């Protein structure tokens, strides 16, 4: 943004237009139905999981509280992105307000970082459960979950605030068509007439500092866990230990694999259609959200039993 004579920030743009799949418009029709089903699945599965954990006393434990945080983050991310994308696909509602765009940008960056941080805390939870089982009840307590939630919130809310602020202060001199389905930081910033070097550097630094450090700590935790598991000699102990952290490890793979593919497509963007990273960016907001509660529901006996009891109450 520029400043007027009174020193206030001004811009020539009052809203933006989200131009989804500019080079492959036929994708909108073919993707809209699967995306709708994934969105409904994500909302329904996470809603059922949250209700089950809330109503079942046997699930009032730190591990399930962390899972509840993950479900809440998934729901917010889905609601922030997918309804707008579907509105573009179905009704051609491409317009998004200037400040609404930067709000969406902030929520996406902040909540993705919070999700990554939650996975890190869950990895620590599994590390303590496997490597220090006798100390687990005294380390992973309700108070620990409360402190972890405050840390997740504070770290990511504060560190991601500059991203939309830096972008909103740029001068957008008439260009308002974003070649994306969402208000991704760099997709918006490249419309500016100003130098966006600081925006790029801060996005890069925050992304690799937060997500990078989280993934390193997550995989370090699992490296130590697998070392401990291999030393178990009791019959069935290895299978039981792997079962307790298998669901979480699968979720980590979902999250990191989609993120890795998205990054790689940007690295080799000259060899792939520019619409491919756009598609991956959209899917990254809904596929993990849809799969997370299903993986835990299928693999965790306590959750399956809790859902079964809720269904029995509802039917009878």
Automatic annotation (TrEMBL):
<dbReference type="GO" id="GO:0071396">
    <property type="term" value="P:cellular response to lipid"/>
</dbReference>
<feature type="domain" description="G-protein coupled receptors family 1 profile">
    <location>
        <begin position="45"/>
        <end position="296"/>
    </location>
</feature>
<dbReference type="InterPro" id="IPR050402">
    <property type="entry name" value="OR51/52/56-like"/>
</dbReference>
<feature type="transmembrane region" description="Helical">
    <location>
        <begin position="31"/>
        <end position="52"/>
    </location>
</feature>
<dbReference type="Pfam" id="PF13853">
    <property type="entry name" value="7tm_4"/>
</dbReference>
<feature type="transmembrane region" description="Helical">
    <location>
        <begin position="96"/>
        <end position="114"/>
    </location>
</feature>
<keyword id="KW-1133">Transmembrane helix</keyword>
<keyword id="KW-0812">Transmembrane</keyword>
<dbReference type="InterPro" id="IPR000725">
    <property type="entry name" value="Olfact_rcpt"/>
</dbReference>
<dbReference type="GO" id="GO:0004930">
    <property type="term" value="F:G protein-coupled receptor activity"/>
</dbReference>
<dbReference type="GO" id="GO:0004984">
    <property type="term" value="F:olfactory receptor activity"/>
</dbReference>
<keyword id="KW-0472">Membrane</keyword>
<dbReference type="InterPro" id="IPR000276">
    <property type="entry name" value="GPCR_Rhodpsn"/>
</dbReference>
<dbReference type="InterPro" id="IPR017452">
    <property type="entry name" value="GPCR_Rhodpsn_7TM"/>
</dbReference>
<comment type="function">
    <text>Putative odorant or sperm cell receptor.</text>
</comment>
<keyword id="KW-0807">Transducer</keyword>
<protein>
    <recommendedName>
        <fullName>G-protein coupled receptors family 1 profile domain-containing protein</fullName>
    </recommendedName>
</protein>
<keyword id="KW-0297">G-protein coupled receptor</keyword>
<feature type="transmembrane region" description="Helical">
    <location>
        <begin position="208"/>
        <end position="229"/>
    </location>
</feature>
<keyword id="KW-0716">Sensory transduction</keyword>
<dbReference type="GO" id="GO:0005886">
    <property type="term" value="C:plasma membrane"/>
</dbReference>
<feature type="transmembrane region" description="Helical">
    <location>
        <begin position="64"/>
        <end position="90"/>
    </location>
</feature>
<keyword id="KW-0675">Receptor</keyword>
<keyword id="KW-0552">Olfaction</keyword>
<feature type="transmembrane region" description="Helical">
    <location>
        <begin position="249"/>
        <end position="268"/>
    </location>
</feature>
